[in-house]
Amino acid sequence: MNLKCIIIEDEPLAVNVMKDYIQQIPFLELIAVCNDAISAMQKLSEHQIDLMFLDLHLPKVKGLDFLAAIKNPPKVIITTAYHEFAVESYKYQVLDYLLKPIEFERFVTSVLKALPVDSKSDNQKTNEPEFLFFTVNKKRTKIQVSEILYIESQKENIKIVLREKTIITRHSISELEKTLPSDFIRIHRSFIISKNKIDTFDSQSVEIQNKSIPIGRNYKNYIKDLLEY
Fold first, then answer.
1. 43, 49, 120, 149: which has the fewest Cβ within 10 Å?
2. Class of CATH domain 3-126
3. Is the pTM of this model over 0.85?
């Protein structure tokens, strides 16, 4: 199912980031961008909205005042540069509280909370991302998920090995793990692999295009069941 959403934000840069992120999530459908709470109220009356991305420091009416005034509001994810309103915001049963600048992986984790419980597994299968964006040399670089062979953690960075090239980007392997499709599996604290790209494997390692990748001790039983050896 698609979640119809609106952005309520008056900063153009923040709007552009949010629109880019939403475009990358298959189950999100952006209905409108509102610069203030008054125009947002109008959109809520015109459309069935499932999810709001709500900034707190808005002109005319502040975000939490707007939220308090809505009867039967849709699900809400707060997007703000200010941490001090987090406790107060949860009085309104918000799904999450995202601090700017918002990383894409944190955004994905947040919007998954908006999915109905009985549809999360279906959406994870049918709406898995075909591509992801990573920052490489200060530019956002589009990577086709189907091209990824494996991912290796290198302290603050990760190395993403593709069929034809390798990229290195500053990222958390644990956060990335949450956004990858189901055919990607963690076999070591430092390695995530594409199960479909395995050439050979045994109890100690897997091999992908002549690269031997160790199976971590704490992952052995899980991987044994998963790969059925």
1. 120
2. alpha beta
3. no
